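Recap slide: glucan endo-1,3-beta-D-glucosidase, sequence and predicted structure.
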Amino acid sequence: MMPENCLQSVLLLLIGILPRVLGAFIGIDIGTDVSDMPTASDVVAILKSHQIDHVRLFDADGRMLNALANTSIEVIVSVTNEEVLAIGQSPSVAATWISRNVAAYVPETNITAIAVGSEVLSSIPHAAPILVPAMNNLHKALVASNLNFQIKVSTPQSMNVIARPFPPSIATFNSSWNTTIYEMLQFLKNTNSYFMLNAYPYYGYTTGEGIFPLDYALFQPLSPAKQIVDPNTLFHYDSMFDAMVDAAYYSIAALNFSGIPIVVTETGWPWLGGANEPDATVENAESYNNNLIRRVLNNSGPPSQPTMPMNTYIYELFNEDMRRGPTSEKNWGVFFANGSSVYSLSLSTSNQISGNASGVFCIAKEDADSDKLRDGLNWACGPGHADCSAIQEGKPCYYPDTLQNHASYAYNEYYQKMHSVGGTCDFGGTATTTTADPSYGSCAFAGTSNSSGSTESTPSAFAPISPDSGTSMLVSEIGFLMMGSILHLFFCLR
């Protein structure tokens, strides 16, 4: 019989193969402070329609976990800040949490990580002494459930834990948290986990008092006179995002740790702000997130760690209108609650979220009375002779299965066919026109400049490689790493 420790080491080798060969990914955070939050099944339908295959939940909501079952979408579930203390103080509480919120859903739901709290050190510093014990208790519960190889435990931290992030080469963690962070890094190293970082160039720029140019925060090209260079390493930083991630790597190294990858669990840019938030605009949000995606999917790391992909989660899926704080706090979403996009966003090399178009569209008002919406929908699909086949079950515009979404599609179908002969976008005051294309995924809304209703997305090129080169490289690396695992197994058995 194979020795147990040998088998575990081989499994660790095999588990380590996939992240290296599959490269970087873009995921998305799902907040729920939304007054008209779609149902869990509608949320999953939006994710699937846009080929989003990595999500982070800010809790462990059973409805979402059930809806994500059998989708293969990789899920990070979260321990809320309110739960951290009890879990850190009691292994039995941690075991119960794992049983109820993780073991009850796997393997059907592809849970891959647990985020313990949210920015605990900077948001609830009194809980710092209990943070790593909470992580340890959860990990031990995963071991007891034989889930520790599949599911990692980590804790998202903000850039505030780094005392001075620029230049990156001299960055260190805030010394007041050194003991906790050292214990955390030791835990991450011992469990083969990763460091979760929340990195927001928006705040780095808006609070920087003009030190850095806006282009630097938005991944835009910099003129030779504005190049950002670390004077100690002479590394050039083309974006604040790269510098932030590198600052975290240097901070980890300053505590004598290496080989711990960083995953950015939150980043993004608000698309709407108040009078004193002039940089929170649709144009900046669209620019930041599209450039971020291109940067991450080129599969390279920051200057000091060029071979470490920067897996990243965009904050966030929906606008959270119930959040407290300035206007910008409520407007980080890339989608409205009805599933339409806030702006054009390419989440991958082959998937385009349609945003602004040259056409005019007729959609349902967000605050429209539901009875009037239903009447308008029935009229458009009946006497109005709108083609409503696309919103039937099993068709591309059925999801999200909401009255507002279906009414928007029907209203627009009617409007595009009839506006040239006097048809209006009113429907009893429940409709309005917009130039923002409400199309999403494979659901295409007809537009005045595109009466066929078809839309095309042009894949973005991220690297000048031949069609076959990526596959051959992937296969060869898998073969090489698999051979290493087989050899390791051979010597274990000798």
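The longest helix spans residues 469-493.
The CA atoms of residues 390 and 397 lie 5 Å apart.
(End of recap.)
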